[in-house]
Design goal:
Elements (H helix, E strand, L loop, with lengths): L1 E8 L3 H15 L2 E6 L2 E6 L2 E11 L2 E9 L5 H21 L3 H4 L3 E5 L2 E8 L16
Antiparallel strand pairs: 1-5, 2-3, 3-4, 4-5, 6-7
Length: 134
């Protein structure tokens, strides 16, 4: 079984690819395989496959697939948090977080086990009750 997240960044394929590599670096994840339209990331025993496809001349669709076969509920939740953190970090790196993400609670790009509040323009210092960042 696979979990999937799909989103669009306003960048050409090369720009989206670079945003994905920078996001992986910022999160401390290792890029295992890379080519212009595909990246494979390894993190804490999980594998994420990224496929990039041009939506137009200046937009790229990024699809993140995370393998969850044989995982219990807690590990599936961790995988989903990591996928969400990666998406958030790509949006931050590409400079589009404010324009594409509605206000709300999102995984902390630096620590996917916690959440931060995005007010529609910037991350705030607010944390949900009982959500200790460290």
């Amino acid at each position: 079984m696979w979990d999937r997240i799909e989103f669009v960044v306003p960048a050409n394929l090369a720009g989206a690819y670079e945003a994905c590599r920078q996001a992986a670096d910022a999160l401390g994840w290792r890029v295992k395989e890379a080519e212009p339209a595909r990246l494979q990331l390894r993190l804490k025993g999980n594998k994420l496959d990224l496929n990039l496809s041009p939506s137009s001349d200046d937009a790229t669709t990024i699809r993140i697939d995370g393998r969850r076969s044989g995982m219990g509920p807690r590990h599936r939740r961790q995988l989903q948090n990591r996928m969400n953190a990666f998406q958030s970090q790509v949006l931050v790196v590409s400079g589009t977080a404010g324009s594409t993400s509605a206000p709300g609670w999102y995984p902390d790009p630096e620590n996917p086990e916690t959440e931060l509040y995005w007010d529609g323009m910037a991350w705030t210092e607010h944390r949900p009750a009982g959500n200790d960042p460290g």
